Amino acid sequence: MNKKMKFSESIKIYASKEKVWKTLLSKEFYQISWGSALSTTWQTGSPIQFTGNWEDIEYVDKGVIKEHIENSFLKFTYWSSFWEAEDIPEEYCDISYMVKQLDEHSCEFTINQVGFRDQVHYDDTVELWKNTNQTLKYLSEKDELTSISNTVFNELASIITAIPTEKYNVKTSGNWNPAQIVEHIIMGNTGMKQFLTEVPYTSDIPFDYNVHAIRDFMLNNDIKYQAPDFLIPATKQYNINEHRELLLNLQAEINDCIATLNFEDKCGTTDMPPFGFMSIYEWLNFAVFHILRHKEQLKSYS
Question: What confidence tier does 54 reach under pLDDT thresholds 50, 70, 90?
């Protein structure tokens, strides 16, 4: 094992470090990214083992957890039966994971490996780690956005329940009443899956390029914008119970999009100033944080 050969890569993930850590330590993650069955307690000093079948060859990869600081740092030794090397300490490499929160939107994940058998081993492993990192990002961001969506919709339901019946359709001067705000949310997001998938679009822009800006935009109450005419709700009496049911359907629809659609695919149905044509991941962030923005607006009526 040549300990002078080293590899390190960092990626940005739009999820909390807790969500990333949860994914990183899950059996599902290693099954998806490596095709391996994971066995460990993740406790310092405990063994770690990855088993599976690669091209009809059974393998056992193993090591020992050297350090584990929850939600931030993990280090373990690693040896593979594929190497056909003697199972002695000198033939183990060192692998470490580090996660740090960057801001309220994202964190940084870093993988470090010290020790490779030769250049072929290095090249093959680097390709594996790059794919593994993308899988970690993909799974963590889906988990995070689903969690945010559920929190927003559950809080929205509680706020609507707390609004007195006489205030729900109350006439206002210049502003939408609570019923119109809810109707706007429903109008703007129903049919999401068809909207996102009916017109494919090709672009070299990273699929998460606008995510930070979208979230900042939606969370900034100093920014005001005019809804397009087709999303302006009519002035009429709305049924609060029908709205509750439609919001439950909308929550299920958005969560289904998060779970089943490829975040990297681009949507060419329409562009959204100032962001332009966006990826499915960007549109889903736009939808969830748009609803969050109006949820906060509704609080003043409860």
Answer: confident
Do 95 and 36 fall within a single domain? yes
Identify whether the C-beta of residue 161 lies closer than 8 Å to the C-beta of residue 37: no
d(CA 12, CA 240): 41
Q: Are 215 and 102 in contact (CB under 8 A)?
A: no
Instruction: Supply the pLDDT for residue 228.
Output: 87
Judge contact between 51 and 36, C-beta under 8 A: yes
| CA triple 16-105-228, angle to 5 deg | 135
pLDDT value, residue 174:
79
Same domain, 130 and 26: yes
pLDDT digits (tens, 9 = 90+) for 56-80: 889 999 999 999 999 999 999 999 9
Would you call 202 helix, strand, or coil by DSSP?
Answer: coil
Expressed as residue numbers, the domain containing 239 is 163-301
